[in-house]
Amino acid sequence: MKYRIVVLITFLLASSFAIGQSKNTIIRDPKLNKNVLIGYCNRQGLKQGLFGKYFETQYTAYKPSDALLNKLRKKINKTQITIVFGSWCSDSEIQVPRFYKILDKVGYNEKNLTLIAVDRSMNALIVDVKDLNLKKIPLFIIYENGEELGRITESPKKTLEKDLLEILKKVK
User: Fold this and answer.
1) CB burial class (10 A; 0-12, 13-18, 19+) of residue 115?
2) Per-residue model confidence as pLDDT tens digits over 98-136
3) Which of 155, 42, 20 is CA-nearest to residue 98?
4) pTM of the model
5) What residues contact residue 19 under an 8 Å CB cut-off, 6+ apart?
6) CA 133 to chain CA mean position, Å
7) Over the stretch 50-76, which tens digit does the pLDDT of each residue have?
8) Which homologous superfamily does the CATH classification assign to the domain defined by 2-168?
9) Residue 104: how many CA atoms within 13 Å on its side-chain side?
10) CA 37 to CA 95: how far, in whole Å?
């Protein structure tokens, strides 16, 4: 119970802090020697620069299962989702646009979505991501009422929609 309260408070504080922060900040990553998104982002940030080309290509090409989308639609809006990604990461270039396609198809309310970009060192600078236990990205964390239900890390085990549906079975 104590863990749930801590997670809920952390989520609420992070969400309220995010509102006051600028989004889609670009920095020069010293490890990569190139510009990357950092900190809180939104869809507009994903559509900029080289990442934007990958976003548009993957988003357009991805065809999620209609049958699975219908099942997802019933529970997904009861959740909050945090996506941690790297604008420099090839897995993020593929999976983040596909995940957005699923969210759009099921009518997910983006006010319940937190998008955080990290650099090559897995830091988000103005956003503390240490408690997320980042090992690989992209990372899709699904919460219900501040309690983590599950996560999809790097690439789905089956498909994004199948893995997401498996997590959503825990929604009350």
Assistant:
1) buried
2) 999 999 999 999 999 999 999 999 999 989 999 999 999
3) 155
4) 0.86
5) none
6) 14
7) 899 999 999 999 999 999 999 999 999
8) Glutaredoxin (3.40.30.10)
9) 12
10) 16
